[in-house]
Amino acid sequence: MADATLVSSPRRTQEWVINLIIKLSGYSSILFVTLIFIFLMREGLPALRNVPLSSILGERWYPIEGYFSILPLIYGSLVVTVGALLLAIPFGVGTSVFLSEIAPPWMNQIIKPLIEILAGLPSVVLGFLGIQVAAPYLRRLLDLPTGLSAFSGAVLLALIATPTIVSITEDALNTVPSGYRQAALALGATRWQVIWGVTVPAARSGILTAVMLGVGRSIGETMAVMMVTGNAPVLPSGWDFLFTPVRTMTATIASEMGEVANGSTHYQVLFFIGIVLFVISLVVNIVASSVSLRGRTRAERVLS
Amino acid sequence: MDKIVIENFSIRYSDGVESLRNISLSIPANAVTVLFGPAGGGKSTLLRAINRLNDLADVKETSGRILFNGQNILDPKVDVVELRRKIGMVFSRPVVLPMSIYQNVSYPLELMGEKRKSRLDEAVEKALKRAVLWDEVYDRLHDPATAISGGQQQRLCLARVFALEPEVIMLDEPTSALDPVSTARIEGLMHEIKEEFTIVWVPHNVQQAARMADYAAFFLQGELIEYAEGKKLFVNPKDQRTSDYVTGRFG
C-alpha cells in the first residue's frame, strides 16, 4: 500500500486542527460585533417607540421628569471632541514631523517612550490632573464660575488623542521614500519647504487615518471627560459655550446606567445613546479605512 | 576652463563605510566627465559632497577643498540652497515627486518664489522640450507624474533640473533602472547638450563610461586611481588596476 502515505497522516490532522482554530478566532470577531449590535438594538430601539420623537429631539435631558433629549449630549460630545481635535491635530502632527524629520536619533529615543507612556496612562489619572490642576487654573485665569467645562474636557481629550495621532502620523512620515526628500533638497528646497511641500503631502492619507483614529479615541473616552466637563446636559445659550459645563454621551451612560431600573424607558434611552455612539464610531472607522485604502492603491501605482 | 576643482578632498562616515581619500580632480566645463569604478568606490559620495547633500548623512570628518567657480563650497558660510540650484542632480532611480507632471517641473521654480503662471507655463514647456519629453506628455500635464513610464520619469527628473537652468548637471547612475531604449535616449540627450553645461556622470557600467566620457576618472575603494581624457584612459590606461577593470578582469 504505497498510496497510504498520500492519503492521511497525523501531521495532516494536526494541520487541520490548527487551521480550524485560527479560522474560528478570525470569525469570532464577526460574531461578537454582530451580537453586540443585536443586543444594542434590542435594548435601545424600543426607546423610539416609548418616547416621542419630539422629546428625543427636544432641548432637555432630565430623565426623572421624562425629558429625554439626546441633543445636549450629542452636542456635548461634539464640542469636546472637535475642541480636542483642534488642539491635538496641530500638536500631534507637529510632534511627529519633529520626531521623523528634525530630531536627532538620541532625542527620538527619549521622546518616543515618553509618548508611549502618555498613551498608556489610565484616563482616570489624567482626570485627576484635570480636576486638581487644569480646571482651577482655568477658573482663575478666565474668572469663570467653574473650571469644569467643555474646554477643560477638550484639553484633556487632546492629551489622550495626541499619542495615537503622533504614532500613526510618524509611521506614515517614515514610509515616505527618502528619495523624495533628497530629490527636493537637490532642487534647492529648504528643510521646511521639503516638509511642507513634499513629505507631509506624500503622507497625507496616513495622517488622515491618524486623525480619524484620534476622533474615535476622543469620542469614545468616558472617564476623563466625566471628571472634568462639569456634567451638565444643557444646550449652550451664548458665545461662552466653550467655557460652560457640558456632558458627553459616554459620560451620561456611565453615570446613569447604574441607577436605572432594568427595562425602564430611561434604560432604553441610555441604550439608544449607545446605538448613536456605535453608529458614529462605525462611520469614523469606515471613513478612516477607506482613506487609508485609497492611500494604498496610490502607493501601488507608484510602485508599478 | 575648470568648473569644479577638487583639492585633496577626504571624507569619512561615522560607520566607516565608503569614504574618499585625498582626491584631487579638475572637472572641465562644457564636457562630460565620467566617474567610474566598482561599487563602494566613493563616486556617489563625491557627487553628494559637491552639492552638499552629504550634510544629511552621518559624516565624521572632511578635509580639503571643493572649488565651484573658484569658491570653496565646503565653507559653512556657503548658501546650500543656492548651490543646489546651480548644481542639479539626477538620481539612479527616477524620483518623481508625488504631484502632477507639470508640478514636478514647476516645483523648483516655485521654491524660488516664482508665482506668475505665464512664466511657469513657459519654463515648464521649455524644460520638457529640452528633456525631449514634451511631445509625449503635453496633453496630460496635470496627470500624476507616477503614471508615466520609468524612462519618461527619468526624463521628467532631467526636465526638473533643466527648469532651474543650472550650470552643472550631476547624474548618479541615471540609467541603471531603465531599459536600453530609454538609456540610449538619455545618453543621446546629454551628448547633445553637453556644450552648454558641465556634466558629471556616474555610469553603471564600463561600456557606458566609455561611450560617454570626454574625461574619465577611475575610482577604486575611495581612491582616485587614474584621471585622463576618455579616449586615452579607455584605450591606453596607465595604471594596471584601471586596465584590469576596463578590460573586465575584475568588477
Rounded average pLDDT of chain B: 90
Shape descriptor of chain A: flat
Order of helices and strands of chain A: HHHHEEHHHHHHHHHH
SSE pattern of chain B: EEEHEEHEHHHHEHEHEEHH
Cα radius of gyration of chain B in angstroms: 18 Å
Low-confidence stretches of chain B: none
User: Helix/strand-derived class of chain B?
Assistant: alpha/beta
What strand order characterises the main sheet of chain A? 1-2
* Record field, number of beta strands of chain B: 10
Query: What's the architecture of chain A, going by CATH?
Result: Orthogonal Bundle
Number of helices of chain B: 10
Helical amount of chain B = 25-40%
Organism (chain B): Anaerolinea thermolimosa
Protein name (chain B): Phosphate ABC transporter ATP-binding protein
Keywords (chain B): ATP-binding, Nucleotide-binding, Transport
GO molecular function (chain B): ATP binding; ATP hydrolysis activity; phosphate transmembrane transporter activity
